[in-house]
Amino acid sequence: MIIHGGALHQGVQPLTGGGANRDTHGVRSILITGGNGGLGRGIGRYFLEKDLDCRVWLGVRSNRQDAEALAAEFPERCSLLDLDVTNARAWEAAVATIVEADGRLDVLVNNAGMHRDHLLAAMPTESWHEVISSNLDSVFHGCRAVVTSMMRQRFGRIVNIASLSAILPPMGQTNYAAAKAGVVAFSRTMAKEVARAGITVNCILPGYIETEALSGMDEEAKKAARQGVPMRRFGRPEEVASAVFFLACHEAGYVTGSALKIDGGIF
Amino acid sequence: MEESSEKQRANEMSQGPELRQKIKEVMVEELMLDQEPSTIGDATPIFGAGGLGLDSVDALQLVVALDKHFALKIGNSDAAKGILESVDTIAREIEKVA
């Protein structure tokens, strides 16, 4: 279901041609999940500002106010899409909507996710399932939903937002770290399976990024966290977005199965 | 009615070699095979030793390509095994559903 956007599909022409080295310059159709969050909006804005020929679809659920504000800034090129990323049928419907509107789907950014931190001994079973579902199942459903369309196009770019927790997990995140490590392994496996089809699959592992994800930390905790970052600062959403933008571009066609840390030097 | 069937069969006969050639071209292009379409025999096994040696990833790509170029929909892996044996078996399936 398209929530926002006007006569946005007029003038959008499906790209033509084929082959793994096809030129993708022209209108690109991009789906970003978690579109209402700080990182999702940051990625969306980056694409909208840097690529004037792209069309951005922001996947949202109940929280959509901030995403609507971004879409209102780019009414011809940005739309909201109601998408429960944990639901396979919702994914199929979303992809069908985009392909019907744009004739193709070039880029999928699996950004939606959440965490419910508890020490393992006190972790409710539902917290485990909820985090695995929103962070890992969602990537499975999303990638499976887009892969046939991208194979038909002989082109696709998938960027999965994992987390530094995948490789440097803090206490209290057995669920989140396991899910994000799963995203990395999933991405590397899928990258091999679809490489011949001109589809790349990469991961980004953000460290501390200035979004609402840090809102649960008090000032003391933030100060301590900054001390652990060699750059002594948190990252900005656009610093993650620029990496996503690169991995989604035509020139990154030989980069696949990679996991890029963006964390100010933590390791 | 009989005459019409004969005509249709004649058309298919004349289209058969062209269809097989087109299938080979699609295979070379979509699967990025490092060989000329003309070097693929109509009955050459697509998978396994002694044939083109393609693998399961190629099979998936081929299923998508056949739908894209010939509107041939292959519903499941059991059906795929029979249809994707050779260019001949693919052509016969396309002709059957045309």
Q: Give the N-terminus to C-terminus distance of chain A in angstroms.
A: 42 Å
The first-level CATH class name of chain B: Mainly Alpha
* Largest sheet features of chain A: 8 strands, mixed
- List how many beta strands of chain B DSSP finds: 0
Strand order of the largest sheet of chain A: 1-4-3-2-5-6-7-8
Provide the low-confidence segments of chain B as ranges: 6-14
Largest β sheet strand count, sense and barrel closure of chain B: none
Secondary-structure element series of chain B: HHHH
Topology, number of strands of chain A: 8
- Total domain count of chain A: 1
Structural class, from helix and strand content of chain B? mainly alpha
What is the H level of CATH, i.e. the homologous superfamily of chain B? ACP-like
Q: Give the end-to-end Cα distance of chain B, rounded to a whole number of Å.
A: 18 Å
What's the overall geometry of chain A?
globular
Look at the helices and sheets of chain A and give the structural class.
alpha/beta
Beta-strand content estimate of chain A:
15-25%
Please identify, by name, the CATH architecture of chain A.
3-Layer(aba) Sandwich
Globular, elongated, flat, extended or rod-shaped: what is the shape of chain B? globular
SSE layout and pairing:
The complex is a heterodimer of chains A (267) and B (98).
Chain A: E1 2-4, E2 28-32, H1 38-50, E3 54-60, H2 65-73, E4 78-82, H3 88-102, E5 107-110, H4 125-153, E6 156-161, H5 174-194, E7 199-206, H6 219-227, H7 237-247, E8 259-262
Parallel strand pairs in A: 2-3, 2-5, 3-4, 5-6, 6-7, 7-8
Antiparallel strand pairs in A: 1-4
Helix pairs in contact in A: 1-7, 3-4, 4-5
Chain B: H1 2-30, H2 56-70, H3 77-83, H4 87-97
Written description of the protein model:
The complex is a heterodimer of chains A (267) and B (98). In chain A, 40% of the residues lie in helices and 16% in strands. Chain A has 267 residues and is of the alpha/beta class. Chain A has a single domain, classed as NAD(P)-binding Rossmann-like Domain (Rossmann fold), CATH 3.40.50.720. An eight-stranded mixed beta sheet of chain A has the order 1-4-3-2-5-6-7-8, with helices on both faces. In chain A, helix 3 packs parallel to helix 4 (125-153) and helix 4 (125-153) runs parallel beside helix 5 (174-194). The longest helix of chain A has 29 residues, at 125-153. Chain A starts with a strand and ends in a 5-residue tail after the last strand. The model of chain A is unreliable at 3-25 (pLDDT under 50). Helices cover 63% and strands 0% of the residues of chain B. Chain B has one domain (2-97): ACP-like (Non-ribosomal Peptide Synthetase Peptidyl Carrier Protein, Chain A, Orthogonal Bundle). The relative contact order of chain B is 0.16. Chain B is globular, with a radius of gyration of 14 Å. Mean pLDDT of chain B is 86; it is low at 6-14. Chain B has helices at residues 2-30, 56-70, 77-83, 87-97. Chain B has 98 residues and is mainly alpha-helical. At the A-B interface, helix 4 of A face helix 2 of B.
